[in-house]
Amino acid sequence: MTPTRRQWLHWALGATASAAASAAAGQAPAGLVWRERALLGFGTTLWLRAAHADAAHVDHALDEAVALLRHLERQMSLFDAASALCRLNRDGVLHHPDPALVEVLQLARRVSARSRGAFDVSVQPLWAAWQRAHAQGRKPTEVELAGARALVDWRAVVVSPQALRLGRPGMALTLNGIAQGYAAERARALLRGHGITAALLDTGEWAPIGQAPDSQPWQLGLASPRDSARLLATLRADGRAMAVSSDAQLRFGADPGDDHDHHILDPRSGRSPPHLSAVVVAARSAALADALTKVMFMGTPAQALAQAGRWGVDVIAVDKAGRLHASGGWG
Questions:
Q1: In a domain, 92, yes or no
Q2: Buried b (16+ CB within 10 A) or exposed e, 154-191
Q3: Would residue 139 count as lying in a domain?
Q4: Is 2 within the bounds of a domain?
Q5: What is the pLDDT of residues 199-223, one digit of tens each?
Q6: Which of 31, 223, 268, 302 has the fewest CB atoms within 10 Å of its CB?
């Protein structure tokens, strides 16, 4: 998959703008030294910002976080032909997988089971069918979709610390719906382990620590899927991670304004779900938030709100008309 950068949830400067300017110069108002790292990874731009009273300490912590992200990318990226995931897709088996790859696949299985297949990392053949047809200026036929759907089944993926196996020839996995959240979660844990008490990590999903440079909660702006310059809402971070999925990231229709066929596919039907344009999920786990944006995307706004209650998370669902439907825990 090659979706564009997730621009639909971004750091909303707002009240933090003046403090951000001083922090950019090095020393924040609270005596903390802020440092940043920006890098390309997982097919997007990753951005880490953290603070500590000791500049050398925060620099070391950020460098270790970058090294961790690079390691996770080598395990889970479809954008690197030599990654462990690409080798699994090519060979159908991967012996002695990295523990992080096992962990994220085990989480994916739990989400798949509980969502009854609304989330499924084996959806890659369906995405490939849409991509091939799009390159030819058409939509996939029913026969093509049926063939791809026959290869989609999370239960046919064997996950163990000893080996990963794809149960059917032609199966392929994508972790694009969970890996970036997992990366944010692991990097946040690493920074906390270094005693970092203020940070914001953007791996395509967002993971905050503590407060922003103005000693206020971090604020994230939710942009309209139809106009990324228009802000639909400002979300105040409460320590939970936030993840977003939008139908505007990659569309398969000939008309750029056609929002019916896009990169978010229902693994069970092989087609894009028709009701929503964007979903934001807030959860303690960034990996879970990432996966649940796809689960919530499969239904109506009312169903997304009901799912939020079942999973113990909060959700904002933006319908095709641009209306927001929010659960009650956003504050």
A1: yes
A2: beebebeeeebbbeeeebbbbbbbbbbbbbbbbbbebb
A3: yes
A4: no
A5: 999 998 999 999 999 889 999 888 8
A6: 31
Work out the mean pLDDT of the chain and round it to a whole number: 88
pLDDT for 116-150, tens place per residue? 999 999 999 999 998 899 888 888 999 999 999 99
Domain tally, the chain? 1
**pLDDT tens digits, residue range 162-190?**
999 999 999 999 999 999 999 999 999 99
What are the DSSP calls for 192-240, one per residue?
HHTT--EEEEESSSEEEES--TTSS--EEEEEETTEEEEEEEEEE--SS
CA 291/CA 201 separation, integer angstroms:
18
The single residue listed with the structure tokens 């849409």 is 130
State how far the Cα of 299 lies from the Cα of 115, in Å rounded to an integer.
12
Of 328, 322, 265, 316, which is closest to residue 294 (Cα–Cα)? 265
The verdict on residue 153 lying in a domain is yes
Q: What is residue 39's three-state secondary structure?
A: strand
Structure tokens at 210: 């503590």
Give, rounded to a whole angstrom, the gap between the first and last alpha carbons of the chain.
35
pLDDT of 306 above 80: yes
Q: What residue type is assigned to position 298 of the chain?
A: M
Query: Sorting pLDDT into bands at 50, 70 and 90, what band is 272?
Result: confident
Determine phi and psi for 257, rounding to 5 degrees. -85, -5
Q: Taking residues 268-282, what's their average pLDDT?
A: 90
pLDDT at 264: 85
Give the structural domain span for 126. Answer: 84-166
| CATH number of the domain to which 114 belongs | 1.10.3980.10
Alpha-carbon gap, residue 204 to 244, rounded angstroms: 8
User: Is the model's pLDDT at 51 over the cut of 50?
Assistant: yes
And the tokens for 207?
């993971």
Torsion of CA 196, 201, 207, 209, to 10 degrees: 20
